[in-house]
TrEMBL record:
Annotated TRASH domain residues: 92-130
PANTHER family for the chain: HYDROXYACYL-THIOESTER DEHYDRATASE TYPE 2, MITOCHONDRIAL, HYDROXYACYL-THIOESTER DEHYDRATASE TYPE 2, MITOCHONDRIAL-RELATED
Protein name (record): TRASH domain-containing protein
UniProt keyword annotations, A-Z: Membrane, Plasmid, Transmembrane, Transmembrane helix
Pfam families listed in its UniProt record: MaoC_dehydratas (PF01575), YHS (PF04945)
InterPro entries with a match to the protein in the record: Ferritin-like_SF, HotDog_dom_sf, MaoC-like_dom, RNR-like, TRASH_dom, UPF0336/Enoyl-CoA_hydratase, YHS_dom
Molecular function GO terms recorded: (3R)-hydroxyacyl-[acyl-carrier-protein] dehydratase activity; oxidoreductase activity
Keyword Oxidoreductase in annotation: no
Signal peptide coordinates: none
Length: 300
């Protein structure tokens, strides 16, 4: 679950006290966080103790040394005053998004535990390799082209990418990445909501019919966002420095696009100059330009 235990020493002697970091919170516990008898099939997770699942002494036959945290959670002062103790929401084990249990789109059981997901797509990814998502901490970065890239397996995010690099440990001129995706009406409406760009050209059919385009088209900055998606496929952490863009033709809702970013010059200080291009399904260039990026190593 990505939680961390750190033993504390007092007066030079090792004690059983633990300061535990979990879900962005520091929990001070009187003993080792949890001990499970040898015949218990699976350790209980920290969230088990921080939710309504644990509320009595009934579990003392399998859990030691104490249930003090359960008594704490049963306290009316804690239950009624969230500002004193905030119970974390479940976390989607695939993408790492916090998911309120009442709004989770999908759930599943695995080795006696309940898991909640932001989408059926994340649940499908989980079902393909549950051990990977349960036993390793977030973030679950993707491996591709012999390197780790900073993309998350976020089930709702559609699209495919391809990497052509000579040496995953040292980017060089000629290395390139591509990212392909269909731009749907849902993408357009969510982009308008996220950015407040509610231009009627993109959202209203009757209005768009009277323009030079004759129909609704995709926001230009939504189209150019595919360049950023492609850049995230390079090994390392890519940081935008500058971007020059020329929009060649409009993009219709439902078009499938492919963004390509290719290194054309290695600059000083881990900086690179790239060509950036987006084509539609017919191979027509809809966007052309150049970018300068800084690529840092991924954090340990």
């Amino acid at each position: 679950m990505g939680w961390n235990e750190r033993p504390r020493r007092r007066g030079g002697a090792q004690t059983e006290s633990r300061e535990t970091l979990w879900a962005g919170q520091t929990l001070m516990l009187c003993h080792v966080f949890i001990k499970v008898k040898a015949n218990t099939p699976r350790r209980f997770t920290p969230q088990f103790y921080l939710t309504n699942e644990y509320r009595s002494d009934a579990h003392l036959d399998t859990v030691t040394p104490c249930n003090a945290l359960a008594h704490l959670l049963n306290s009316p002062a804690i239950r009624n005053q969230n500002q004193q103790f905030s119970v974390p929401m479940p976390v989607d084990p695939v993408c790492g998004m916090e998911i309120p249990t009442e709004t989770a789109e999908a759930t599943t059981e695995y080795e006696g535990d309940s898991f909640y997901f932001c989408s059926n797509d994340c649940r499908a990814l989980f079902a393909s390799a549950p051990e990977k998502y349960v036993e390793t901490p977030h973030p679950h970065l993707i491996e591709a082209g012999g390197a780790i890239i900073p993309r998350l397996p976020y089930g709702r995010a559609k699209g495919e990418f391809d990497i052509e690099i000579t040496d995953p440990t040292a980017l060089q001129e000629g290395d390139s990445v591509t990212f392909s995706k269909e731009i749907t009406d849902d993408d357009v409406r969510k982009f308008a909501e996220a950015t407040s760009d509610t231009n009627a050209l993109h959202l209203n059919d009757a209005f768009a019919e009277k323009t030079r385009f004759g129909h609704r088209i995709v926001h230009g900055t939504l189209v150019s966002g595919l360049i950023s998606a492609a850049l995230a496929c390079f090994p390392g952490l890519t940081i935008y420095i500058s971007q020059n863009i020329e929009f060649r033709r409009p993009v219709d809702i439902g078009d499938s696009l492919t963004a390509q970013c290719k290194i054309v010059d290695e600059l000083e200080g881990d900086r690179y100059r790239l060509t950036t291009r987006i084509e539609n399904y017919a191979g027509e260039i809809v966007l052309d330009g150049t970018a300068t990026v800084l690529i840092d190593p991924l954090p340990e």
